[in-house]
């Protein structure tokens, strides 16, 4: 399953595109940065909702205040 998820990343970055890590082109860095933002924007809300749900289930809710 992980190989199916990672394969598009390997198609985008086939080794030559990572040369920016060694002082390569700015364009590759911009593409990598945009991809990183997209991944974070897609994953963070899911993680946040899962953590909030767990905190609600276990009674650790910070959002309701501690009376």
TrEMBL record:
This is (Perigord truffle) hypothetical protein. Keywords: Membrane, Transmembrane, Transmembrane helix. The chain crosses the membrane at residues 20-47.
């Amino acid at each position: 399953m992980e190989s199916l998820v990672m394969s598009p990343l390997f198609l985008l970055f086939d080794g030559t595109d990572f040369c920016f890590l060694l002082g390569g082109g700015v364009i590759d860095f911009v593409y990598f940065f945009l991809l990183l933002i997209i991944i974070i924007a897609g994953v963070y809300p899911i993680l946040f909702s899962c953590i909030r749900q767990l905190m609600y289930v276990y009674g650790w809710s910070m959002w309701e205040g501690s009376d």
